[in-house]
Amino acid sequence: MGLDKLDLAIIALYLIGITLFGLRFRKRHRSLRDYFLAGRDIPWWAISLSIVAAETSTLTIISIPGLAYDTNLTFLQVVMGYMVGRVVITFVLLPHYFRGDLYTAYELIERRFGRGLRSLTAGLFLLTRAAAEGVRVYAVSIVVSIALGTGEVASIAIITVLTLIYTFEGGLAAVIWTDVVQTGIYVGGTLVGLVTILHLVPGGWSAIHAAAASAGKLQVFDFRPNFWLPYTFWAGVIGGTAFTTASHGTDQLFVQRLLAARGQKQSGLALISSGVAILFQFALFLVVGVMLWAFYRVPSANFGKPDRIYPTFIVNQMPHGVSGLLIAAVLAAAMSNLSAALNSLSSSTIMDFFVRFRPQIDERRRIRFSRLATFCWAMVLFGLALLALQKVGRVVEVGLQIASVAYGALLGVFLLGVLTRRANQRGAMIGMLFGFATELYLWRMHVPWTWWVIIGTMVTFAVGFAASLSMRERPS
């Protein structure tokens, strides 16, 4: 069927509208506190939706349905772990972030250990977050190139430039409030898509349910004690808990939003409520994948790779108008995730490195350099997305793997800081090195990614604690 003028008009209206909406916040910041933390005056519900948007990329929208198309609903076990991880953060890490006036997660590390370890943890965040976001930006090109035929490079450039405009000007306030709008767009668009698929499959939900149930597509729990399976109950809940505790508790992308709340209680409420929304959202995307399987009944290889199934369905099967709405929904998730990445990378660059070494710079020049950092990171992510064009397989798993390879080392260091007073900076650095090396080894040995963070965390904590005791240094 393809897209027609109505679809293109909807997509263009969305792109122009969200960019102009984000630019409304460009005059609201007079300090780094305004630019990077939105003046710490964002209501909990807006932060909650922003966390959901930051956690949802194009990878989620196009790759999770592809995962369900090939397998079943067992990925939900990982999402259950996401919920548990949020509870851990609320009681273990969040109180420490609200003791003082912190801008980044890694200031907590300096306060506990020292400058050297702060630079190391912040540097690791910058490297791995940039790599993971490069894959996510590339995922946008899959959708745009199928929908508009613009080519992958041009597709990446369009989204990067438009997102950069309002992120550059509006800071975190623009990021969060555009996230709120974009979350509504992509969730609403997906619900419209779900209803449309129901009408396209002969027999509707009854036929879909009967076929999916007989094929094992509706399985949620897998209690097999097999270490090498990524989506069992044990790997999902344990791995998902460790992954979210690390991502939302140590990654500046998420911690920055928690720090923008009006207080610790509102921050915790935002975090927990976002978990409920994420559970609903992943269930929605997985069900869409099962419904697509019921519609096509062909191997995913017929589409080239699973990530192309949902975008192909949107463009070729959806009624005009609905197609444009769903493409806009996918772009909403992409832009929201990219804007979050740009602002968090910029905030860590400026606060964890630039301001520390150039403290004499006045506030106006700091904001100027913050915008420059935002622009530079946009160029870096654009370049990394071009490199990711050669990636194969499900891009959601590639993105999760890149993030996971550093999260264990980061979480282990944070837990050393908040759970024990006997760890010191040198010991923590040694533990972090061992934990990171372990996760790289797990990746190379093809161990399921769901186990990487928990194993890396335990290695980092154990080696870091033992090294600290052997060196007998007083904690700083």
Write the layout of secondary structure elements.
Elements: H1 5-23, H2 32-37, H3 44-55, H4 58-70, H5 76-92, H6 94-97, H7 106-112, H8 115-148, H9 152-200, H10 204-214, H11 233-250, H12 252-259, H13 264-296, H14 309-317, H15 322-357, H16 363-387, H17 395-419, H18 425-444, H19 452-471
Structural commentary:
- The chain has one domain: Sodium/glucose cotransporter (Up-down Bundle), CATH 1.20.1730.
- The chain has 19 helices and no strands.
- The chain starts with a helix and ends in a 5-residue tail after the last helix.
- The protein is globular and about 70 Å long.
- By secondary structure, the protein is mainly alpha-helical.
Describe, in short, the structure shown.
The protein has helices at residues 5-23, 32-37, 44-55, 58-70, 76-92, 94-97, 106-112, 115-148, 152-200, 204-214, 233-250, 252-259, 264-296, 309-317, 322-357, 363-387, 395-419, 425-444, 452-471. It is mainly α and 476 residues long.
